[in-house]
Amino acid sequence: MHVFTFVIADGTVIDGPAYARAVRDLGVSAAEVNRLRVRMATITGTRRAVLEVSRGSVSLALRPLAPAPAEITVEALPVRDERSQPGHNGPDLGWQRSVLVGLPTHEGLLADASSRVVQAIFSPLLTVSEGVVTVSGHPGTTPSIALDGVLGILADHGCEIANTAFGFSVRDLMLSETWVVDPIYGARLVTRWREYGALVAGRTSINRAGVPSHRAVNEMRKTRAVQV
């Protein structure tokens, strides 16, 4: 099973064509994709969509879109990554939810056996430092259409995109401007870390060297909303 979650706003989806390609690549027929498109095009208002794909079949559930902050607090002590299928969205959602609900913060970190940070509990991370945007190339990082879209925006603005093959260290994240890239809420800036029970300010005053802010990127993401 693969699960995609995103926002539908009056029949449009940010990075909609990428989601359509991903569904087709999972074996969903063209006829079924077209039926899904017709249904989504008729949705009014703003909803959170949960798209489940299993064995060539697809189902769509619509849920309310709860408000959430664009600036968040993240637990600095990583959780050992126990996902069974880290390269897939869906099979480990139950375990991920159980981890997140036990944290007193908006998000947490998953780390491998070497204590390298793979990603946030649900979403990929990126850092901004001296004009360079760095993403994780760790093999356990789950692919993300939202992250691909954000990186496309940053690349269009001339930003240098770097890749750290073995994930991040916690210190890397705390010394850089760090974003959690969420498919629902977009780029979320880590403004506070919870370290050993105390709250530590995240790095937000940096030499941006042309890198747009997370809020600016989120505004630009809205312009990528099209019918699927």
Automatic annotation (TrEMBL):
<protein>
    <submittedName>
        <fullName>Uncharacterized protein</fullName>
    </submittedName>
</protein>
